[in-house]
Amino acid sequence: MKQLGHTKLLELDAQYCWHPFTQMQTAQPPLAVVRGEGEFLFDAQGNKYFDAVSSWWVNIHGHSNPAIAQAIAKQALELEHVMFAGVTHPPAVQLAKRLMQSAPAPMAKVFYSDNGSTAIEVALKMAFQYWQNKGVGNKKRVIALEGGYHGDTFGAMATGKSSGFYDPFAPWLFQVDFIPTGVCACTEEEALAALDTLLANSAGEIAALVLEPLIQGASGMRFMRPAHVAELCKRCEAAGVLVIFDEVFTGFGRTGTLFAAEQVANFGGQADIICISKGLTGGFMPMAATLTSQAIYDAFLSDKVGHALLHGHSYTANPLGCAAALASLALFESESTWANIQRIETTHQRWLPTLACHPLIENPRVCGTVAAFELKFNHSQCGSSSGSAYGSNTSQWIRQSFLELGIVVRPLGNTVYWVPPYCSAPETIENAYQTLMQVLQRWGKLIAPGPGSELF
Description:
Layout: H1 6-16, E1 33-37, E2 40-43, E3 48-51, H2 54-57, H3 66-76, H4 90-102, E4 107-113, H5 116-133, E5 141-145, H6 154-159, E6 177-179, H7 185-202, E7 206-211, E8 215-216, E9 222-223, H8 226-239, E10 242-246, H9 260-265, E11 273-276, E12 288-293, H10 294-298, H11 319-334, H12 337-357, E13 361-367, E14 370-375, H13 379-382, H14 393-404, E15 407-408, E16 415-418, H15 426-447
Helix pairs in contact: 3-11, 4-11, 7-8, 12-15
């Protein structure tokens, strides 16, 4: 395929492309990326950028990883795709076995789909139909956490509508019961009290609780203690309510363990269904899976076709995606991936005191390879559309400032975060923090112009 020059690429993009989560009228021109290698992206002019957000959290082993690329190429010459209804193939079976060997109890079965949103849709349909198949037809309600984000299909939007992303679609979303997110001791108590009230009054009507374990990603990298998540799980289990973990972001090492559910299990809590995507294929192929227990699977076994889970996608269990996922999982064992994960977390932790003392930073925090913090801003000087809102002037300024200094970030309002590929060299992570100090100097002068602003 003919390589397009930088100017022509942007011209054609502006003419034909509609980008996700973007106000196209006010957005800056996109970064014109033509190549990736390791933790870096390269634009059409040859400039190098650190992919500090792993390309929307999907890339875990680095761009163009040769082991994954070769696995896909080899599989493409054997079997590129075949429908998964009434057919099976080695990569799908091998991946399902590998996932079940790694997933926490009580996971036993794998249902493949295409992306995080569809994994959530499958989980919700499993939960609702599980109770119907068991003859408990009045369990039609769902509990979710305030601010949670689970994707952009309609079921996923309903469970994440308190995140604020879905206002235009509110009339079409089903009712969900929301409880506070336990991001500190006081809200943990509020969350447990709210859950207790719902379960005491309506457990017979509630099918499932859905949540992102340990980290709520899109709502601003809000962290929860595993012990608190475990308490939510134990209360639901006692009340006969299923628990769905959305590990689309938190899975595959992001929180320091392969599944965030492992840390929750240390405190006696477990999910009945786990949704995975993003890092599943190492950032190479769109693919997802919904993992569930034998008990839920058994509830769909019947002589009646209507008791089956009548759900599927054309590219379910795509062999190329399965091959990429198998290669990605193998890298956790064959390379120093876990040592790299620990090294990244150690670097984040080492910078925490510096961030905590900085006058322009609030609430610095670390969980596994994820580091996050908020930039303070001056409401009166930043404009009415600036601040903590998604896509605000503040977030656009942050993104552009880092981009000019060679780092790709995707701020969530005024929340900045690092979610680097695990292969990132120590000097790359250090440079990201040094670059942050430069951005903070610019930010300080912008929000507090005049004498003394150079201190920032």
